[in-house]
Amino acid sequence: MTKNDDRIVESATLDEAIDDIGFRRMHVLMFITVGMFFATDSIQSGCISYVTEVLRKPWVLEAQDESWIQGLVFAGQIITAPLWGGLADRYGRRPTFLAASFTMAMAGTLTAVAQNKIQLMILRFFMGAAMAGYPVGFTIFAEILPTTNRGKIMLSTMFGFAAGSLYQTIMAMLSICSIGWRAFVVLCTFPTWIGAFMSIFFLSESAFWLVSVGRCDEAVRNINLFSRRSGSTVQFRHITTTPGVEKQAQGKASTMTLLKEKELRRPFILMSLVWFGFGLAFYGLFLMTPHLFSKDQDDSMQPRGAEMAGSLSSSHCAGITFQFQDILRSNLGQSFGLLLSVCLVDRVGRRGMQQILYLTASIAVLCLSFKDCFGVSLLQGLIAIAIGALMGASCCTWPHTSESFPTHVRAIAGTICSGLSRAGAAISTFAIAGNMSFGSIAAVLCACCFVSFLAVSFTKETAGLTLDGKEATVTVGKRQQEPRTVAEAV
Question: Which domain holds residue 296?
Answer without folding.
Answer: 7-488
